[in-house]
Specification:
The protein is mostly helical. 84% of the residues lie in helices and 0% in strands.
Length: 85
Amino acid sequence: MSGPNGEPSVPVGQEEEEAEEASDEEYVALNLMLDQINSCLDNLEEKNDVLNAKLRELLESNRQVRMEFRQQVEATAPKDSQDNS
């Protein structure tokens, strides 16, 4: 039998129950997607932290090499140029 709008007659309670089940399934799917996104963001944050630490080490190493290079240049510079300054 059809309802007044040509739709199959479905008891009102059953229709609401189906809508709730669909809504629950959507929430579960959404929750899973959010968990995956959260996991990806955690991985990115961890990689970012590692890269940041490596860059800091590289910068510090570069500073030390530049200081050593300056000291070598100053030590090997001719004494005349230092006296004329």
